[in-house]
Amino acid sequence: MSDEAGHDHHHEEMVELTVSLEKDQFEEVEKLASEYARELNQDWDVSAVLRVAVGDFLNKLGRIL
To answer: Considering the entire predicted model, what is its pTM?
Structure first.
């Protein structure tokens, strides 16, 4: 589905889980979320950044497209 600006909004079923990160990792992910939100003028949170990171990791392994 695309919005008026032509952005694709692909919605997947979400699964809620708890993730443990090292403190410095969490702090960097928080910073990225804040930077993306500001630069892209979109809602970004820690969960969104982690989904992108996991997706990139799985893509590089050839597990997802």
So the answer is: 0.77
Contact 12, 1 (CB under 8 A): no
Instruction: Parse the chain into domains and list their residue ranges.
Output: 23-60
Q: Nearest 10 degrees: CA dihedral of 47, 16, 12, 64?
A: 80
User: Residue 7 in contact with residue 13, Cβ under 8 Å?
Assistant: no
Instruction: Give residue-wise pLDDT tens across range 10-64.
Output: 678 999 999 999 999 999 999 999 999 999 999 999 999 999 999 999 999 999 9
- Residues 1 and 9: beta-carbon distance below 8 Å: yes
Characterize 2-30 residue by residue with b for buried, 16 or more Cβ atoms within 10 angstroms of its Cβ, and e for exposed.
Answer: eeeeeeeeeeeeeeeeeeeeeeeeeeebe
| Closest residue by Cα to residue 27 from 52, 46, 42 | 46
